[in-house]
Write a structure and sequence with these properties.
The chain is of the alpha+beta class. The protein has seven helices and three strands, in the order αααααβββαα. A three-stranded antiparallel sheet has the order 1-2-3, covered by helices on one side.
Length: 143
């Protein structure tokens, strides 16, 4: 896939986010696999996305996944933008990422897993960056 922002990237990120949303009660393996796949997507992402998100090197990701430190992978990935995470009164984990320069703020929640919420928030924000780069006319073509 080429490294320009465009329709293929919108589809890739949209499908990944849909997958995150379908997993309602993720286990540790699900979350590790999601985070690992997100890092692979971000490694190939357009410069507009990589400007805000850069996952750690794949060797570091592999070691952190092996140790079950998924949240650390995601924190390293969000170093450039920052991340706010909390637990709601209901017990849900909520993660929010903002990119003020693009007027983008996205949140994602998970009933069980902070790492799942973080993964969804990163994917939603990356999708927002791609959509922002495409503009409304290009988004109509893929709707």
């Amino acid at each position: 896939m080429n490294n320009s922002t465009g329709t293929p990237w919108h589809r890739v990120l949209s499908e990944f986010l849909d997958h995150c949303e379908r997993i309602r009660a993720p286990n540790r393996e699900d979350v590790s696999a999601l985070a690992h796949r997100l890092c692979q997507i971000l490694d190939e992402a357009p410069d507009a996305v990589r400007e805000h998100f850069e996952p750690p090197p794949s060797s570091t990701v592999a070691r952190l996944v092996e140790r079950g430190w998924t949240e650390q992978i995601l924190l390293l990935t969000t170093e450039r933008v920052g991340l706010m995470a909390s637990r709601a009164a209901s017990g849900d984990a909520i993660a929010t990422i903002a990119v003020p320069s693009l007027d983008i703020e996205r949140s994602f929640s998970s009933p069980d897993s902070l790492a799942h919420a973080m993964t969804g928030a990163i994917a939603a924000t990356a999708l927002g960056i791609v959509a922002s780069d495409l503009g409304p006319a290009d988004l109509d073509d893929i709707a």
